[in-house]
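User: hey, got a sec? need Putative HhH-GPD family protein folded
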Amino acid sequence: MAGTLYITGDKAADGLLNKDGTALLIGMLLDQQVPMEWAFSGPAKLKERLGHVDARKIAAMDEADFVAVCAEKPSIHRFPGSMGKRIHQLCTVLTDEYGGKASNIWKDLATGAELYRRLHALPGYGEEKSHIFVAILAKTQGVAPEGWREAAGKFGDDVPRSVADISDPESLAKVREWKKAQKAAKRNKQDQPI
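Assistant: Yep! Here you go:
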């Protein structure tokens, strides 16, 4: 994997996201109730503290010990306790079902619908997060199974609406502008009234 996602403002942190599927999956998991940059910097913080973002090693840790790592200042999220537990759960599923590698989720897939189904079954991956991650894989990581646009929902279009549409400073600015306009119009990322 060697993608084009540009989000954290830190070359090493973005590089980790673009090379390591588990880091990318964890970054997307953290992308709620905090700025995108903070969420997607989380995997780099974990790697700095643990020396890795290996799902098998994280799953093997005592959950409370892992949560304590997540809560170290600066914490990986506004809610490091609940998000630390969720990461631990995610890594356990990756270990038990995907050989400890997130990239196995999208390996040898026939359709975008199957990719969406696999993502949606993961801890912390609801409908919208799963749609966005399908779009991230297709738009920035070169993983575009047949029907990915349909599986990504609104996030499969060419409107700069989410992290999936960010590959450089200019596209980051466009996504921010679009989100600001949506907020002013009282609409969400899927163009629905809020």
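Quick note: The chain has one domain: 11-160. Let me know if you need anything else on Putative HhH-GPD family protein.
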